[in-house]
Design brief:
With 208 residues, this protein is an alpha+beta fold. It folds into two domains: 77 residues, 2-Layer Sandwich (Alpha-Beta Plaits), CATH 3.30.70.260; 121 residues, Beta-Lactamase (2-Layer Sandwich), CATH 3.30.450.40. 30% of the residues lie in helices and 31% in strands. The chain has five helices and nine strands. Strands 6-5-9-8-7 form a five-stranded antiparallel beta sheet, covered by helices on one side. The chain is elongated.
């Protein structure tokens, strides 16, 4: 069955997530992962990954969640992520085991880890060092505002991006989502941590 990621806003109090889980189950979804993105002011933002019956209408899912008091749906999008607490550690291990192919391993892994459509490693002069298999072909990188290195931004075409530096050589790891909510700051910080680990493992070889 397809995997979906759902971004929801809900009251940050005991029982709220349980109510959401029961609602999703009644609608036909099966939760495989929950990631808490933010908790503040008595509210929480969660990304919930679920399996969903192939061909079933997403409106059924959205209507069910919207009927829960205090719950709002920011977005629902298909994902190919492989849920797991240690996904970041696994990709760092893959890079360490085979440094010459480390950039490829990183770029191919991050879309699954972050529930995104594609990723690319950009050189200091904004050439494509490597792009994941679902990236547009040809891939024309969006203009990256100088203030957006290590931040999320939305391209002129409406695509949501996260862009973080890798090392001190000017490389950038670019992550993209189409038809999905913007990257949350928690996701950007996690991507920064992964890029930092990649630089520690690969060093200058990441610039190749």
């Amino acid at each position: 069955m397809p995997l979906l990621r759902i971004r929801i806003r809900l009251p940050d109090r005991p029982g709220s997530l349980g109510t959401v889980a029961r609602t999703l189950g009644a609608a036909g979804a099966d939760i495989v992962q929950v990631v808490v993105l933010e908790r503040s002011g008595g509210r929480a933002i969660d990304d919930v990954t679920v399996t969903w019956p192939d061909g079933a209408s997403l409106s059924v899912l959205c209507d069910a969640l919207s009927s829960v008091r205090g719950v709002g749906v920011d977005g629902v999008w298909r994902t190919s992520e492989a849920p797991g607490v240690f996904a970041d550690v696994e990709v760092v291990g893959q890079m360490a085991a085979n440094p010459p192919n480390g950039v490829v391993a990183l770029v191919e892994a991050v879309p699954k880890i972050f529930g995104s459509d594609w990723a690319a490693m950009l050189t200091a002069d904004r050439r494509i060092a490597h792009a994941s298999w679902r990236a547009p072909d040809p891939l024309i990188p969006p203009p990256v505002p100088l203030s957006s290195a290590g931040r999320a931004f939305t391209g002129e075409d409406g695509v949501r991006y996260a862009c973080v530096p890798v090392g001190d050589s000017g490389q950038l790891l670019l992550l993209a989502r189409v038809a999905a909510p913007p990257f949350h700051q928690t996701e950007v910080e996690r991507l920064i941590q992964l890029a930092t680990a990649a630089d520690a493992v690969l060093g200058v070889s990441a610039a190749a």
